[in-house]
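Q: What residues go here?
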């Protein structure tokens, strides 16, 4: 629990109430929001559907033909699965605001690093080793690029990526840095979060209009509305009648759907993989905001099944490994053994979930608390 230092006022100067000088303490949280864990997994499965059946490229080589041929009807739906990333960002805004409230900067850094790095390092190593095997037709990165990938800085350094999904982690890391600098460091309060959301929203719009690479890099205009919307929904979770928070959510939804449609809309064309209509994009974005809002308002407390906690724990390692290792699995099952398309799809998803469980059980279970304890320990302490 963090608090700001309170200076002693001179005797002849009236002091303000103590609460005006201290960051707000987080409200006591109830039971784990298991529905949020379920939504995480749903978003990850949407992205997996996109990677296995909603696009061309390397996955077409794995199938032996375009997923459009493998899934003549479903590929149109799978093509919308890329929007699972935007849902992830809304969830992230909510969770980071909730978990960062009342933390010191050291504690926040330890929490984020211990959560992200163990499975990430394991996934980078695993994919590199698998791609280096002689039977695997996909090319492994160079030793130097592999080492850079361990830093999570491969995107800004322009290095070949081991994990295709790491671009989303780069967006997450930038969000964490902004949140830590503007909220965690001075101490989280409702007013600071509201101001941060307002300034970031305006700054992102200015960055988009200015067409400045530096501003785009820092303020991420195409993703900012989703992180900001998630933070607004956490404020709603704290106070359901907070009209300012609802305003933050509304503006974030309005601008977020704009960026999603602008970046992801695909008109009907025989030259494009799939028709991705604007109304469908808006519907998926709306679903993401509405689902997190329902959780924030307590409307999904009934979804309190224990297995959702496990589902949430598997989401991150599944997300890391599913794409590139999925190519290998699809090629092995479908082209190697002639397993039908839908069965290959289901077996690949199941296999990646099983691998995610192994990473959670044998990597995260010990490495996460170990890193959190070591990184959270003050310098020089025993």
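A:
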């Amino acid at each position: 629990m963090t608090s700001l230092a309170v200076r002693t006022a001179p005797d002849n100067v009236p002091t303000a109430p103590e609460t005006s000088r201290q960051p707000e303490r987080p409200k006591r949280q109830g039971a784990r929001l298991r529905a949020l864990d379920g939504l995480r997994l749903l978003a990850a499965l949407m992205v997996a559907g996109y990677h296995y059946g909603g696009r061309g490229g390397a996955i077409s080589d794995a199938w032996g033909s375009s997923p459009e041929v493998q899934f003549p009807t479903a590929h149109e739906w799978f093509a919308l699965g890329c929007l699972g990333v935007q849902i992830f960002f809304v969830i992230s805004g909510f969770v980071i605001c909730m978990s960062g409230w009342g933390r010191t900067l050291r504690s926040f850094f330890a929490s984020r690093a211990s959560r992200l790095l163990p499975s990430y390092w394991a996934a980078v190593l695993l994919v590199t080793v698998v791609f280096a095997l002689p039977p695997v037709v996909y090319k492994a990165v160079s030793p130097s690029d592999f080492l850079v990938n361990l830093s999570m800085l491969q995107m800004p350094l322009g290095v070949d990526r081991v994990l295709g999904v790491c671009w989303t982690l780069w967006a997450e890391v930038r969000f964490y840095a902004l949140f830590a600098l503007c909220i965690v460091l001075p101490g989280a309060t409702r007013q600071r979060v509201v101001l941060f959301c307002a300034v970031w929203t305006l700054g992102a719009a200015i960055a988009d209009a200015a067409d400045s690479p530096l501003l785009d890099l820092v303020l991420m205009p195409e993703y900012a509305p989703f992180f900001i919307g998630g933070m607004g929904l956490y404020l709603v979770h704290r106070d359901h009648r907070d009209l300012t928070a609802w305003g933050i959510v509304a503006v974030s939804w309005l601008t977020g759907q704009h960026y999603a449609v602008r970046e992801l809309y695909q008109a009907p064309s025989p030259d494009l993989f799939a028709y991705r209509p604007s109304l469908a994009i808006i519907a998926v974005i709306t679903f993401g905001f509405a689902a997190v809002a329902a959780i924030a308002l307590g409307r999904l407390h009934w979804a309190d099944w224990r297995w959702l906690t496990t589902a949430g724990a598997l989401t991150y390692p599944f997300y890391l490994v599913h794409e590139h290792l999925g190519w290998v699995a699809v090629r092995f099952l479908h082209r190697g053994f002639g397993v039908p398309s839908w069965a290959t799809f289901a077996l690949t998803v199941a296999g990646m979930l099983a691998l995610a469980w192994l990473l959670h059980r044998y990597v995260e279970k010990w490495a996460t608390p170990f890193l959190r304890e070591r990184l959270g320990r003050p310098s020089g302490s025993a």
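A: Context that may help when evaluating the design: Residues 30-372 form one domain. The chain has a mean pLDDT of 90.
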